[in-house]
């Protein structure tokens, strides 16, 4: 198997976690007692923990290593501002696709970074693929719930659309591998820009949605999501 084939398969696997999460949410919609409130919020918070682990273990360290402190800070700040403006725009539109946009907003730059990381060598690409799988499953779950409750789309159409969106992963990874891997500063800027956006989305959308009164499961979910990212990082680095 060639390296690019391996990269495309990894990015497709990461993207396939989105419709898998949607299918889990659809099952929960049909059988609401299948998961219950505690486990449903655990899944939401798990995605937040996995997203933060991607930021802390891969995107920020890799991105910051390619830029000066001032430029790194500017790129990170720009990401936060842009995601704030995007969120405000969607709120004014009263759109039901906020969680879907959030899912793609981190999936696309991470898939690009995945391809570039493999082109540059090292273990960051494999770790990033693992973290993308961990975060895309609960994000697919969240996005399905939002779309199914606030739009006219049927559940089957939503799952089908998510399956099509999974193909964005290989296309983005190939772009990073062939076109952007030679531009270290551009890749660093993209990683930091995406990092700020991910942090904004975690605290704006995921953390509030995961909260349950007098329940600790959401907090346990967030810790578990980050823990799996940390273990994956240590195993890959050790190998």
From TrEMBL:
Positions of transmembrane segments: 40-60, 67-91, 111-137, 158-180, 186-203, 215-236
Entry keywords, A to Z: Membrane, Transmembrane, Transmembrane helix
Coiled-coil segments: none
Protein name: Divalent cation transporter
């Amino acid at each position: 198997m060639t390296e690019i084939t391996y990269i495309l398969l990894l990015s497709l696997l990461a993207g396939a976690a989105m419709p898998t999460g949607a299918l889990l949410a659809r099952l929960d919609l049909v059988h609401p007692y299948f998961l219950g409130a505690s486990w449903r919020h655990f899944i939401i918070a798990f995605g937040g923990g996995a997203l933060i682990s991607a930021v802390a273990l891969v995107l920020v360290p890799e991105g910051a290593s390619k830029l000066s402190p001032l430029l790194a800070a500017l790129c990170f700040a720009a990401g936060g501002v842009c995601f704030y403006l995007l969120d405000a725009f969607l709120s004014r539109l009263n759109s039901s696709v906020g969680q879907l946009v959030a899912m793609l907003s981190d999936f696309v730059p991470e898939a690009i970074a995945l391809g570039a990381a493999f082109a540059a060598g090292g273990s960051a690409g494999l770790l990033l693929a693992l973290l993308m799988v961990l975060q895309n499953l609960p994000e697919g779950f969240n996005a399905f719930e939002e779309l199914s409750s606030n739009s006219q789309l049927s559940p089957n159409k939503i799952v089908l659309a998510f399956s099509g969106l999974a193909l964005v992963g290989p296309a983005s990874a190939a772009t990073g591998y062939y076109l952007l891997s030679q531009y270290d500063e551009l890749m660093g800027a993209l990683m930091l820009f995406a990092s700020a956006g991910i942090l904004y989305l975690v605290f704006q959308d995921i953390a509030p949605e995961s909260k349950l009164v007098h329940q600790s499961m959401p907090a346990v979910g967030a810790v578990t999501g980050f823990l799996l990212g940390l273990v994956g990082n240590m195993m890959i680095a050790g190998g």
